[in-house]
Design brief:
This protein has 181 residues and is an alpha/beta fold. The chain contains 9 helices and 5 strands; from the N terminus they run E-H-E-H-H-H-E-H-E-H-H-H-E-H.
Length: 181
């Protein structure tokens, strides 16, 4: 049976690390909710920073419905032949309505201390505005609509992973979820 894991967590909580691990060790196919947004910003020659990602997401959702990104992703997932599929970056409960109907879907919330997450975001510099971000700026990012909605999903999660330990501890927790469901 196909297993689909939706990863949710605040900025730099470790979702990408979990995705990469599952891709490399368990041959998972990874889809990121933000990939479509990044593609659109790139085509429009706009900076791919958190502000633009957030505003584009809001515009698309207001115009085409709260479930626009999940509607697109669910079609990819249903046509994918991989046994393990990861949906990296679930942000809203509305995004789950299609996936909740798919057998084998599980929502996993990844959490980590805010100071550790701040260090990670500076080190990785995934978005253009990350490397120069102050801790105060980082805390302000958590007041954006998408980030507030993320915290609400912890209650809905099937499993919660505490990512305040080592990489080995994180990988062990992920493997236990795969083994025990």
């Amino acid at each position: 049976m196909k297993k689909i894991i939706g990863l949710v967590g605040e900025i730099a909580s470790g979702k990408g690390t979990v995705s990469k691990y599952l891709q490399e060790k368990h041959n998972a196919k990874v889809y990121r909710f933000s990939d479509v947004l990044r593609e659109i910003l790139s085509v429009l020659y706009l900076d791919c920073d958190r502000k633009n990602l957030s505003e584009l997401s809001l515009c698309l959702r207001e115009t085409f419905g709260e479930d626009i990104l999940s509607n697109a992703l669910v079609r990819k997932v249903l046509n994918d032949e991989h046994d393990l599929i990861i949906l990296d970056g679930v942000r809203r409960k509305e995004e789950l309505k299609f996936f909740d109907e798919i057998e084998g879907f599980q929502l996993v919330y990844v959490e980590c201390d805010i100071k550790d997450r701040y260090k990670r975001i500076i080190e990785r510099g995934e978005n253009m505005d990350d490397k120069n971000k102050t801790f105060e700026d980082f805390k302000k990012d958590h007041e954006r609509d998408a980030e507030i909605r993320i915290r609400e999903l912890k209650e809905r999660a099937d499993k919660v992973i505490d990512n305040d330990g080592s990489l080995e501890e994180l990988y062990d927790k992920v493997d236990k979820i795969l083994t025990n469901g």
